[in-house]
Design goal:
This protein is mainly α. The protein is 50% helix and 5% strand. The protein has helices at 12-28, 32-37, 41-57, 91-111, 113-121, 129-138, 151-156, 158-163, 220-242, 244-247, 250-260, 266-273, 278-287, 308-320, 343-364, 372-381, 394-420, 445-448, 451-465, 483-502, and strands spanning 145-146, 170-175, 192-199, 202-210, 213-215. It has a five-stranded antiparallel sheet with strand order 1-2-3-4-5. The structure holds fe (ii) ion.
Length: 519
């Protein structure tokens, strides 16, 4: 039996896990057949032991404490570079978050350790170009596709642009910002850009550049590595970049709406209905030292490649944007549907139209002059949020409400669900071989990635990325009193259902869609 005297500093949950594992293994020990079948259980225990050692050797990180205020506050570490944070959260909301979400985290930590070890030790379908093309067309990584190239891109991929026919449409996936980020010893990331050609059924990878040197599919080990670094870049840029911009900027909308618009106003009712659990959850992600974003090696579910400061620089890069590079637009509160290629965006747009129709009805019945102060406050806190003057146009108000609902429900939910379908082996946060140079020694998958890292990421996938809906989109009640709004809400739900029915099978997810940010 493991006890806290053997493992200094482990928590009671971890002790429970280790004891449970030990008991399970003792039971298996009576059965020779299952011992043979499970002959690599020792390797799995070894993986767990390494992660526990990393935990006990890590020093505690300084706690980041935000100022508490009734208004959204600037990040003390990176003022003006992160979305303002809401720090005054009602106790009832916090308790709901603890009972509905934190409890599930704890259950996953205890109950899913062993199955996560299994996943880490077994290679899924092996990665090839066909699978890579499929991932970039169908998964949320399609968000990063852009057909605008910088002069530097044209130089790196010069040969391919020279060969390109006039009908060819090329896209890039650009994660060149990673060149500025630091990693832990032995963990590698790279400045990476993928070049794809649009074909009938989706995409075809043409080349991948790593640290400004381009590679092609015929380059064996170098190509294997280039592919993996591209996927790593997308994984980090999604989780630690664009997805964060679905979470945090709308915190201010919730807080300011509660302060400036009376509860019985339909606009307040809409925002409130789609705000369930968001503020306490986002507070936890931003400020808890145990948060995934803080990447403390003391937590067995943290898997980012480098220090917390670099994780936050990833968030900031995508929030601030990089001038002159269309792969890095700055964050703007959405007043129109997302625009990028592939079925993921197509589904997002179809939902957007249905939400907009609903919000137009609400906006048309609103007294717009009462919203001036509300909009002016938000205009100062959220980039791209219309000013008090602009909000008096009911179409702009409808688009504000749509942008809010769409981001926190449809887009946020679909992004989690589709991203979490990718096996961790296919989008590793950490890579353990150096980026390719063109003269690279052959490696196997378990040398390019490490079981301990994959285990960490798998536990995180289950705890944080998989969708665990608490309140569903179709269950939302707005509490309208006015007949025409009650009818509009009914039509809205019918409209959502119709979109869902006509989507490709793998995107028919409305039955489980969360109405707000709940994970
Ligand atoms: Fe999320």
């Amino acid at each position: 039996m493991y006890s806290s005297t053997n493992f200094k500093g482990i928590s009671s949950e971890e002790e429970t896990v280790l004891n449970w594992l030990s008991e399970s293994l003792n039971e298996e020990g009576y059965d020779l057949q299952s011992r043979i079948k499970n002959s690599n259980w020792k390797n799995k225990i070894e993986t767990l032991r390494t992660v526990m050692d990393e935990r006990s050797m890590a020093s505690r990180q300084e706690k980041w404490v935000p100022p508490k205020d009734t208004k959204p506050v600037q990040c003390p570490q990176y003022p003006e570079r992160m979305p303002p944070s809401v720090t005054d959260i009602a106790d009832s909301e916090y308790q709901e978050f603890r009972s509905k979400i934190v409890k599930r985290y704890m259950q996953a930590l205890i109950g899913e350790t062993w199955s996560s070890l299994e996943v880490a030790h077994n290679l899924p379908q092996s990665l090839d170009d066909e699978l890579l093309n499929d991932i970039y067309w169908n998964s949320p990584f399609s968000r990063f596709l852009t057909s605008e190239f910088t002069d530097n891109d044209l130089t790196i991929f010069q040969t391919f642009f020279e060969q390109k026919s006039s009908e060819d449409i090329l896209y890039k996936i650009d994660h060149s910002h990673l060149k500025d980020q630091k990693t832990y010893p032995g963990v590698y990331i790279a400045s990476v850009i993928g070049l794809f050609r649009l074909i009938d059924e989706g995409l075809q990878v043409v080349s991948i550049s790593i640290n400004d040197k381009s590679f092609t599919p015929n380059q064996g080990e170098s190509w294997e590595r280039a592919r993996l670094f591209l996927l790593q870049g997308s994984s980090l840029s999604l989780v630690g970049g664009v997805h964060a911009s679905l979470h945090f900027p709308t915190d201010s909308v919730i807080a300011i709406t509660r302060q400036y618009i009376p509860e019985n106003n339909p606009i307040a009712k809409i925002i409130e209905a789609h705000s369930y659990l968001q503020l306490p959850l986002n507070y936890g992600v931003r400020w808890s030292p145990r948060s995934y974003a803080h990447n403390s090696p003391r937590e067995i579910y943290t898997a980012f490649p480098g220090p917390r400061e670099d994780v936050f620089h990833g968030f900031m890069t995508y929030y601030e944007g990089i001038e002159g590079n269309s792969a890095y637009p700055n964050y703007q509160f959405p007043l129109s549907p997302p625009e990028f290629p592939g079925p993921y965006c197509k589904a997002l747009k179809q939902y957007y139209d249905v939400i907009l129709e609903f919000c137009r009805t609400v906006a048309n019945q609103s007294d717009l002059n009462n919203l001036v102060q509300w909009a002016d406050e938000l205009n100062a806190l959220v980039p791209g949020f219309p000013s008090g003057k602009e909000i008096t146009d009911s179409e702009i108000l409808a688009r504000v409400l749509t942008g809010y609902i769409h981001s926190v429900s449809v887009w946020h939910y679909l992004e989690h669900t589709l991203y979490s379908r990718l096996p961790v082996h296919h989008n590793p946060h950490r890579i353990r071989v150096e980026p390719p140079t063109g003269n690279d020694l052959k490696t196997e998958w378990w040398q390019r990635t490490r079981h301990t890292d994959l285990f960490r990421q798998e536990i995180a996938r289950r705890m944080f990325y998989e969708s665990h809906t608490v309140r569903n989109m179709l269950e939302v009640e707005y509490g309208f009193e006015n007949e025409s709004l009650i009818d509009a809400a009914k039509r809205f739900k019918k409209g959502l259902t119709k979109v869902d029915k006509n989507l490709p099978k793998e995107l028919q997810l409305l039955h489980d869609m969360a109405c707000s940010i709940q994970f």
